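Hi support team,

I submitted a single chain yesterday and got back a structure, but I'm not sure I'm reading the token output correctly. Could someone confirm the output below corresponds to the sequence I sent? I've pasted both exactly as they appear in my results page.

Thanks,
R.
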Amino acid sequence: MFFNFLVAHRLLTIMLVVAAGALVGRVRFGAMRLGAAGALLVGLAVGALDPRLGQDLDLLKTLGVVLFCYTVGLTAGNTFRSDLRRQWPLMFLGIGGLGIMAGAAVIFARWGGLEPSYVTGLYAGTLTSPAIAAALQVSASPAQTLVGYSVSYPVGVLVALFFVSLLTKRRWPGKRDVPSLAEAGLTATSVLVENPSLIANVPGFSDGRVRMSYLRHEGEIGVASPRTQLERGDEVLLVGNPADVAVALRALGRESAPERDLTNYRRNVDFRRFILSNPKLAGRKLKYVREEVRNHLGGVVTRVRRRDLDMLGNDDVVLQLGDRLLVVLPSKNLGEAADFFGDSEARISSIDAFSLGLGVSLGLLAGSVHLPLPGGISLTLGSAAGPLLVGMILGGIHRVKSLHWDLPHSTNSVLRQTGILMFLACLGISSGPAFVSQAFSKTGLVIALVSAGALVLGAAFLIIGAYLVGLSAQRSSGAFAGFVGQPAILSYANSLVNDERIDSAYGALFALGTIVKIVAVQVIVLL
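Hi R., thanks for writing in. Yes, this is the structure output for that exact sequence:
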């Protein structure tokens, strides 16, 4: 009776799985928490109770992964092009790691007596890949392929979560990587000028590593500009990361006495964070907005806060709806500045349904394109890699005339979390019966061991390689999440640290890895 009720009210079942999964996700297993993957485990348990619960969930499952991958793509696209030089080693390491996994899976499977049909499924399942469609197409026994997929899927998630829990908070040199914006931090220091200089000539100013805002000249407080000539006895406020501020401070003079901190003087000159809700400014580089602020408001933008990241106001920062800009300007112009930036929470809480619907549609179209391969097989990116790839492209473009592709940060975050929870809950419920029927058999045990062993080898190759080429642990963690292709792994990594390099590396490997995996499952059948 109870199961009949759950079958009749499928959406209620999914929401109960999401709620119970959230509780499971909070439980600590040593240093690891399952996070969003708790919905997958609860879904597997619930789905195993009655096979009918997992029927007709494909549409909801696809919607979840599409929303997640598209919003991740928008975020990753913002820094992907600037990070591309650092991402190339990861891409080659990812290809090598996937090749090692395929070879290891074939060798281990032969030792364990598994048929190649199982191997194609377990390879796709361990790497949570849309390659399962290609695997079923070439498999001599689709039933065996589905068993391999259903058993190896949760194994891949758990092994990957373990690696991410060990890796994400690590600190190693990462000499070829840029520091995280959140990690670098910003400081503001009042400086007493002892060495006269034009502001534009101060070390770090021309290349955007330091900014100046408050200026005290002959006892009067004003706003500094690049054309300002600093004289001996002037005081100026330096903003930047501590190392760059220290260099500029030594060039100019010495730190002012604490009681003379320029930010304490707010009668004629004031500072405030304004919310960017004016769509005319979204998608524009700060360089051009800064000129308008200087010329029309007499102020200067020193910082841009995006989600939990506080960034220095560099010329190349592309503004997004929901950014909070710290502006120093004459007090009389505060009202005019609020009108200029928009400064409205309500306006950034709404969704531009047209750009969202159009962007997702383009992603689904890209995912549905069939590219023919030798042997009568076709390559398809699918509903995960297609939206991710298109999201990265649109996130890098930002806008086309009045059409804005970027979503406000809060909207992006809500859609991302909703998508991943919906996807994992539906996937667990639909996979539960097949998982339970095979997981505790001899075949299931061999599949689990082969999956875990192959993934450990691939992960070791990728992570050790990233360390040797000088990339940070955080970028390596994001790359590993993209390598595995599991959205829950990315979500878990982001819950551990606040670091934009994770999303950027995930985007670099996810789409490329999907293509490699689709080709690999077809090669495995021939080995």
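A quick pointer for reading it: The mean pLDDT is 81. Let us know if anything else looks off.

Best,
Support desk
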